[in-house]
Amino acid sequence: MVNQLADRNWRAGNGGPFAAIVVDHSSGELISVGVNVVLSSALSSTHAEVVALSLAQTRLGVWDLGAARDLELVVNWRPCAMCYGALIWSGVRHLRLAGSGPECEDLTGFDEGPMHSDWAGELRGRGISVSEGPLRDEAIAVFAEYAQSDATVYNARGTSA
How many CA atoms are closer than 13 Å to the CA of 61, on its beta-carbon side? Predict the structure, then answer.
């Protein structure tokens, strides 16, 4: 689902090829959906993860999502530096991602920011489980199509990775 949302999102011109959902870890119940809306909102912090986490907090009426339920953030790639922090602060207990590695930055030119080399271990040390799903190739295909387009890459001060 997140790869399809990410692909649809950049094609609509809302922002980058990124999407996130928050689900109940046990039941799979969908709590919220977020896509990157940096371009359409003109707000640099409206990354997919931040949008999905914020909508989940609003829906459930809590700032600590870990206190509300056993929730999972599902994303189409490893979070950037900002979204990594948002994940930690949200209280979510699980992160599932389609993939991680240099492909996102290499293909798209986005600057995902400085990340700890053992970012997943750091999350696990904070009680957040991390798992990668089988949809890595699908996520990379979305990034590759994005890279072939004339879509805007919105790094601060116009720099690229």
Answer: 0
* CA 5/CA 33 separation, integer angstroms: 9
- Per the CB < 8 A criterion, the answer to whether 29 and 38 are in contact is no
Q: Strand 71-75 vs strand 94-97: parallel, antiparallel, or unpaired?
A: parallel
Nearest partner of 15 among 56, 54, 44, judged by Cα: 44
**Strand spans (E) along 25-121:** 30-35, 71-75, 94-97
Alpha-helical (H) ranges within 17-64 are 38-41, 48-60
pLDDT per position in the chain (161 positions), as tens? 999 999 999 999 999 999 999 999 999 999 999 999 999 999 999 999 999 999 999 999 999 999 979 999 999 999 999 999 999 999 999 999 999 999 999 999 998 889 889 999 999 999 999 999 889 999 999 999 999 999 988 887 665 54
Contact (Cβ atoms closer than 8 angstroms) between residue 109 and residue 154? no
Q: What sign does the dihedral 113-43-68-32 (CA atoms) show?
A: negative
User: pTM of the entire structure?
Assistant: 0.94
- For residues 82 and 76, the answer to whether their CB atoms sit within 8 Å is no
